[in-house]
Design goal:
- By secondary structure, the chain is of the alpha+beta class.
- It has 8 helices and 17 strands.
- The C terminus is likely disordered.
- Bound molecules: pyridoxal-5'-phosphate.
- Pyridoxal-5'-phosphate binds next to α6.
- Pyridoxal-5'-phosphate (PLP) binds next to α6.
């Protein structure tokens, strides 16, 4: 996956050069994984670049940090503005935005003690996470032998860097075995989520997704999909999902900032439905991409426009 440089990165309220955004090898985060982060997409629209659900992402960012007793020294409003300014300053039309808050250099032990809190926001150009072809025809995935962490181990409501050691195991196992992505079960063997996506199943016209308590991240795209289903009068329910339901479902799809809405055409080499994108997934995709491209009305004010004067941006 390419990782093209941009000009500037935001650091603790100031813009610095991309190459100057460095931390010490003994920063607390390097040994102990003490970072919380976000992933946000900025879409190219007819009215210029627009950040999808900027406010919700920045609220989750602060929530993730709060769970780990880190108070981000910037408000949601400050961070919301910083994201828009970053897009403008780097002259991006569309991009992926990565806010990170971490414990820096200043403590050698597990107790973070004197380690300073550093906040960064970077952005770069990023294409389709699971491929263009996958969006249309679906992807082949497996159920991972790695489970999500039990609820009383690593909190899954926090988007913490440490959780992504587990995600890496899931993803590497999947790709090693020839799949695009892996689906993790929770500690009780119920469907949780992908290594970097939430998951939905369609059974007899009803859209189902596991509750957050099945060790899934409270995805912002997941929330958007639920809202879109309600808007389109498609029944949608949060429900515990046994593994085998993945095989007999009419449709299965992933969603997330990176994966957007990606159909799944097989699980463990078992064909899902007719083995291609299903009609309900297609309807949800059309609505999602319509809103994010600006071609359909943004009725929930999910977009904030980088080029709109401050205060005029929709959200
Ligand atoms: C583990 C995991 N689950 C779900 C998601 C989807 O969340 P969102 O839609 O907020 O990007 C992501 C991506 O951030 C993720 O990393």
């Amino acid at each position: 996956m390419s990782f093209p440089k941009t000009d500037k990165i935001w650091h603790n309220g100031k813009f610095i050069d991309w190459d100057d955004a460095k931390i010490h090898v003994l920063a607390h985060v390097v040994s102990y994984g003490s970072a919380l982060f976000e992933g946000i997409r900025c879409y190219k629209t007819t009215q210029g670049p627009a950040i999808f659900r900027n406010r919700e992402h920045m609220q989750r960012f602060r929530n993730s940090a709060h769970i780990y007793r880190i108070e981000v020294p910037f408000t949601v409003e400050d961070l919301w503005e910083a994201n828009l300014e970053l897009v403008r300053i780097n002259k991006m039309q569309s991009c992926y935005i990565r806010p990170i808050v971490l414990r820096g250099y200043g403590s050698g032990g597990v107790d973070p003690g004197g380690a300073p809190i550093e906040t960064y926001i970077a952005c770069w150009e990023w294409g389709r996470y699971l491929g263009d072809e996958g969006l249309k025809n679906g992807v082949d995935v497996c159920v991972s032998s790695w489970h999500r962490s039990a609820p009383n181990t690593l909190p899954q409501m926090a988007k913490a860097a440490a959780n992504y050691m587990n995600s890496q195991l899931i993803r590497m196992e999947a790709t090693t075995n020839g799949y695009i992505e892996g689906i993790a079960l929770d500690t009780n063997g119920y469907v949780s989520e992908g290594s970097g996506e939430n998951i939905f199943v369609v059974m007899d016209g009803t859209v189902l997704t596991p509750p957050i308590a099945n060790s899934a991240l409270p995805g912002i795209t997941r929330n958007a999909v639920i809202t879109i289903c309600r808007d389109l009068d498609i029944p949608v329910v949060e429900q515990v999902i046994p593994r085998e339901m993945l095989y007999i479902a009419n449709e299965v799809f992933f969603c997330g900032t990176a994966a957007e809405v990606t159909p799944i055409r097989s699980v463990d080499r078992i064909k899902v439905g007719n083995g291609s994108r299903g009609p309900i997934t297609k309807r949800i995709q059309e609505e999602f991409f319509g809103i994010t491209s600006g071609s359909k009305p943004d009725r929930h004010t999910w977009l904030s426009y980088a080029n709109a004067p401050t205060g005029v941006a929709v959200r």
